[in-house]
Amino acid sequence: MMTEFIGTHGIGAHDIGAINRQIIAAVAAMKSKRGNMAWRDLPYNQDEIVNDIVSYVNELKDSIEAFVVLGIGGSALGPMAVQQAVNHPYYNELPRDKRNYPKFYVADNVDPERLVYLFQNIDPAKCLFNVISKSGSTSETMSQFMIIKQLLEEKIGKEAAKSHIVCTTDKEKGNLITIAKQEGYKTFFIPSAVGGRFSELTPVGLLPAAFCGVNIAELLRGAAKMDETCNNGDIYANPAYMYAILHYIAFTKGKNMSVMMPYADSLKYIADWYAQLWAESLGKKYDNYGNVVNTGSTPVKSLGVTDQHSQVQLYAEGPFDKIIVFMGVDHYRETITIPQLYGDMPSLGFLGGVTHNKLIQTEQMATEYALLKQGKPNMTITLPEVNENTIGQILYFFEVATAFAGELLDIDAFNQPGVEEGKNAAYAMFGRPGYEEKKKELEARPPKSEKYII
Ligand code: PA5
User: Fold this and answer.
1) How far apart are CA 110 and CA 72, in angstroms?
2) For residue 236, how many C-alpha atoms fall within 13 Å in the half-sphere facing its CB?
3) Same domain, yes or no, for 331 and 184?
4) Which whole number is the average pLDDT over 80-89?
5) 204 and 254 housed in the same domain
6) Confidence of residue 443 (pLDDT cuts 50, 70, 90)
7) In sequence order, what DSSP letters do the residues of 49-117 get, joined into one string?
8) CB of 196 sitting under 6 A from ligand 1
9) Is 331 found in the same domain as 392?
């Protein structure tokens, strides 16, 4: 990232000095607002919840074939990311005695083909459906819930259906908690002060993870460990603050894209989860004083080495408008060695006896070098290994980095008015009661025929 390595487009000590006032203000804000950032307490205050989840999972795991998450955005990306990171990549295809836990599915989209195909693959009567919605009103999730509720009731009767649905929602607000109480569904709660994309370490993520055999206590221990590291006001000793500072400075120099490029299939969905966290938290029209700023940094998902063969050409030789964040792994959980074949062919022979572990790491270093040579800002985060502890650490790391970036940008990183606008417009289009004004507003928009393409 630094000038001494990449020259003109790098960052120098003077760049950090130049934003000293913002840094001091942001560090102070992170300290003074800590009490209002309920997500920061999650590594410490959930012993009881973890016990409750673990005993619930142990009670049910052997009697169900699949655990299905119904949720979207912050209520789906974390569960997917953690399961993919920690578990076997072909988890669902493993025989039951190797998996030991139910199969895992997430139905986040409302593509009409999605649920139909899912039902062709699972028997709902042998599944547990986890409806996850903080607001309890998200159309996508609630529509899936209604479809599944009816299907279950038709198939196994109203009473039996109840034990196949578990809700994760706000304790007091929203339709889902009302329904859960009426029906008597088992319920886990999302602390009201924790927003969707910061909720992975609540039952939103903990329950699905535990149903896939993930050690959730270890996940939280990892987060606690990272909290100790990232609770330091010294920016040179706080990796999350430095991550945000480097992004912020680069951003002020026109580099407003953040490419997340893990070199491990297991981390692919961590990049998806990060994309939501970074985009939805930092993309804002107004600053904290109501000025129009239209700020933000665009996250891009990439996978090493796969995307070396698709996106890296752009990153190496394209515009100076992005930071590439490599995420490497020191110790992969498996090793595979390339056999000593074709020794007489120099362009293949050199691979003989090399492990894929070495190959992927070398290719990562080679790509880092290719970017360095072109003066392209890039940084590398290395996980010693992918496991519950390091995943807890990395999730928490990005949450703190995002919150700190929000402070530097002087915006509210915890709201999402742009997302709400779309949700509200959809409600109005369906004529949902209470959205009459929004409907009028929509009706006043130019008809499609007045647009350029007829
Ligand atoms: O981060 C957010 O707030 C959003 O992505 C929400 O998680 C998403 O819209 C789903 O909302 P809910 O959990 O209320 O159904």
Assistant:
1) 10
2) 4
3) no
4) 98
5) no
6) confident
7) HHHHHHHHHHHHGGG-SEEEEE--GGGTHHHHHHHHHHS-TTGGGS-HHHH-S-EEEEE----HHHHHH
8) yes
9) yes
Number of domains, the chain: 2
What's this model's pTM, rounded to 2 decimal places?
A: 0.95
280 is catalytic: yes
Ligand 1 proximity of 135 Cβ (cutoff 6 Å): yes
Domain span including residue 360: 3-32+222-409
CATH number of residue 86's parent domain: 3.40.50.10490
Residue in 14, 309, 448, 451 annotated catalytic: 309
In this structure, which amino acid lies at residue 91?
Y
The mean per-residue pLDDT over the stretch 134-160 comes to: 96
- Of 374, 364, 355, the residue nearest 307 (C-alpha): 364
**What is the model's pLDDT at position 306?**
96
Tell me which residue of 245, 267, 285 sits closest to 377, measured CA to CA. 245
CA dihedral 436, 440, 441, 447 (to 10 degrees): 140
| Amino acid letter, residue 350 | F
The answer as to whether 26 is a domain residue is yes
Q: What is the rounded (10 degree) CA torsion for 352, 353, 354, 357?
A: 130
Among the three residues 214, 232, 262, which one is the final residue of a domain in this structure? 214
Is the residue at 419 inside a domain?
no
Task: Please tell me the residue having the least CA distance from ligand 1 atom 15.
Answer: 133
Q: Which residue shows structure tokens 């691979």?
A: 351
Residue 427 lies in a domain: no
User: Are both 12 and 108 inside the same structural domain?
Assistant: no
**Does any domain span residue 432?**
no
> Cβ–Cβ contacts within 10 Å for residue 437, how many?
10
Say which of 126, 225, 358, 423 is annotated catalytic.
Answer: 423
CA-closest residue to ligand 1 atom 9? 73
259 touches 326 (CB < 8 A): no
Task: Tell me if 133 CB under 6 Å of ligand 1.
Answer: yes
User: What pLDDT band is residue 35 in, cutting at 50, 70 and 90?
Assistant: very high
In whole angstroms, what is the distance from residue 114 CA to residue 320 CA? Answer: 39
Q: Are residues 57 and 181 in the same domain?
A: yes
pLDDT in the model for residue 451: 58
Residue 73 Cα: closest atom of ligand 1 = 5
End-to-end CA distance of the chain: 47
> What totals of helices (H) and strands (E) does the chain contain, helices first?
20, 11
